[in-house]
Every structure is written in structure tokens, then in C-alpha cells.
Amino acid sequence: HAQAAAGVGGVIKMVMAMRHGVLPRTLHVDEPSPHVDWSSGGVSLLTEAREWPETDGRPRRAGVSSFGVSGTNAHVVLVHVHVPADDIGAVDAVEGAVEGGPVVWALSARSAEALRAQAARLAAFVDGAPELRPLDVGWSLATTRAALDRRAVVVGRSRADFLDQLRDLSPSAAPGGVLRTAGRMVLVFPGQGSQWVGMAVDLLGASPVFAGRMAECERALSAHVDWSLTGVLGDEAALGRVDVVQPVLWAVMVSLAALWESLGVVPGAVIG
Length: 272
Hints:
By secondary structure, the chain is of the alpha+beta class.
């Protein structure tokens, strides 16, 4: 069963039909049913693909129905929208901003054995499909798969990173860099010297949770300092001052902790 994707196949098919201006052939039909009077209306089966032109400037419209075995019925009305070239460029720019960054692949299964087997299957699949982007695989694993009891996560930037880690999880792998035991997690705040010019700037734009907690820290600090927390993140001279870098590091760490908590990673303790 397609789980979360059940019924969306027809929607995807119709969106592509609108995009290309083609009415697809009706599947699994060789000839019209004799139990329907096809001559009394304007409805007919498509025995072959047909051009779908726009009429008098009006957009293409279509209805897509999905009927569940339990009696659930859904009907979606789709309207063709022309996407301006500028918008397509904006989407490409956003994808380019995250491409190459760290990506999380989440796996789950009902048992440890099934989890290891799934890791092996995924490794074999990815190894045989070099055109797959790590970002797309991570998105699909997170949004289209059920979250079962036994779970594993691998983090990487390249296909090689993920293949190595998936093979470490597989049944035949020798123990490697895999954390298998459960326990309390501790967050350690680093001291001075861990900073760099521009740290946290990308995350401010990518994570509303991180940005919100940084804003709270900035308001709390504003009564005691004459500089802006977010303003000094890219200022090399300012970050060289002890009275600046110490509260900046503290604010970044507090905001990172808030981000982890928003993702369900709650520490047992925080030190540093």
C-alpha cells in the first residue's frame, strides 16, 4: 500500500498532463462498456492520448477522485497555473543553498533485524541509482515512511558518506562507528575559541526556532551591551573581544539547544 501517497498518483498524473497539454489515454480499457449510453452526453473514453489546448485563454481544469476501500471518498479540483520563469529560478536558488549541506536519513523497522535488513536494502538501492540526490532521499524517508519502534539515523553530505554508514548498520557489518546503546544525552556548551566569523548566520535564515531563540537572547542582552547579537556574528573584530564572544557563544548554544528540542531531541543535562 502506498501509505501517505495513496491517491496522489492520480493527482501527479493530472498535474503532468496539464503541464504538457496532453490528455493521457484511459488505462486498462480496450473498448467502452456496453452498459453505459455513451451517445447521450459529452463524456467519452480516451483510447489514445490527445492534445489538451487551452480555450480562449482559460486555464485547464480537471477533477481527480480517490475511493477508499472503507468508503472514504475524496475529490480534488486542479487548475493549471503558469509558473513565471523568475519563480522557477527562485526555487532553484533555494535548492542550491541547501545542496551539499548535511542531510539526515531516518530509518525505522519493527525489530533490530528488520532495521539492519532495511539499511542493507537501502544501501543496495542507492548504490545502483547514482542519479539520486541525498537531499531527495532524506526527504522521502522522512515524509513517506511510517515511524516504527526500532530506529536509526545516518548523517552525511555525499552518497559515499551514506553508503558507508548504511553498510555499518547492515547485518554483515562488523561493529564500527555505530552507537547502539540507549542512554541519556548531554549537551556540552563549548568555551571561547570555538567561534568563527559568520557562525550561525545560515541557520538564522533556515530555522525559525533557532532565529526565535536568538531574538530572545538578543532582547535579554540589549539592556547590558551596546552591540547587536545578530549584528556581530559576521564581525571579525567584534568576535575577537572577550566581552562580546562569550555572550555570543552562549546565545548560539542556547538557540541550538532549542532547535534540537523542537526536533524531539531533549537532553538529560546541559553543561559548559
